[in-house]
């Protein structure tokens, strides 16, 4: 019974139409997207890629299920950073041995391993669980203009 200003009115609602659809292997359709990273800002690119990998652009997004798409990023060496980040931003890792902390600046990392800039940024935006690791495996980053995934017929995605 619904009461509005003392007037009781019975609302008959078809509850079947309000059921939430959860993702499952039957429902999920994974697409392939290719993104050209030329002159794109790293963080803005990474957030869009993470969004696609998690499947948040789909109406049946379920946080506990991997319903994301495959993403190919080309021209990773032509990525841009804003401000003074090329010289100020540092990436720290540890070898696992005493005194084994290593630090490398963004400019040096881009010169040596241009794919790592994008991979590190995207990995930091994904969940830190088994599900996040499964999502990360659907990301393919290439330094050049070529990629070996032509058979999957990836769609172009502009940011």
Order of helices and strands: EEEHEHEEHHHEE
Q: Strand order of the main beta sheet, please?
A: 7-4-3-8
* Helical stretch tally: 5
Radius of gyration: 22 Å
Largest sheet: 4 strands, parallel
Number of strands: 8
Straight-line distance between termini? 49 Å
Structural class: alpha/beta
Coarse morphology: globular
Assembly classification: single chain
Describe the structure.
The longest helix is centred in the first third of the chain and has 13 residues, at 42-54. This protein has helices at residues 42-54, 85-88, 106-112, 114-125, 130-136; strands spanning 2-4, 7-9, 32-36, 70-74, 90-94, 101-105, 139-141, 155-156. Strands 7-4-3-8 form a 4-stranded parallel sheet, covered by helices on one side. Strands 1-2 form a two-stranded antiparallel ribbon. It has 5 helices and 8 strands, in the order βββαβαββαααββ. The model has no long low-confidence stretch (mean pLDDT 90). Helix 1 packs across helix 4 and helix 3 crosses helix 4. It has 159 residues and is α/β, with parallel strands linked by helices.
What's a concise summary of this model?
The protein has about 160 residues and is an alpha/beta fold.
Sequence-ordered SSE layout with sheet pairings:
Elements: E1 2-4, E2 7-9, E3 32-36, H1 42-54, E4 70-74, H2 85-88, E5 90-94, E6 101-105, H3 106-112, H4 114-125, H5 130-136, E7 139-141, E8 155-156
Parallel strand pairs: 3-4, 3-8, 4-7
Antiparallel strand pairs: 1-2, 5-6
Helix pairs in contact: 1-4, 3-4
């Amino acid at each position: 019974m619904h009461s509005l200003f003392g007037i009781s009115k019975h609302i008959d609602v078809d509850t079947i139409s309000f059921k939430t659809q959860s993702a499952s292997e039957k429902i999920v359709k994974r697409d392939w997207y290719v993104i050209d990273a030329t002159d794109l800002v790293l963080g803005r690119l990474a957030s869009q890629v993470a969004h696609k990998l998690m499947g948040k652009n789909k109406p049946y997004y379920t946080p506990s299920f991997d319903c994301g798409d495959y993403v190919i990023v080309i021209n990773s060496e032509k990525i841009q950073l804003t401000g003074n980040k090329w010289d100020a931003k540092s990436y720290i890792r540890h070898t696992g041995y005493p005194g084994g902390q290593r630090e490398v600046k963004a400019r040096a990392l881009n010169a040596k391993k241009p794919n790592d800039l994008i991979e590190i940024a995207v990995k930091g935006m994904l969940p830190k669980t088994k599900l996040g690791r499964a999502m990360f495996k659907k990301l393919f980053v290439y330094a050049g203009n070529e990629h070996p995934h032509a058979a999957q017929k990836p769609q172009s995605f502009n940011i």
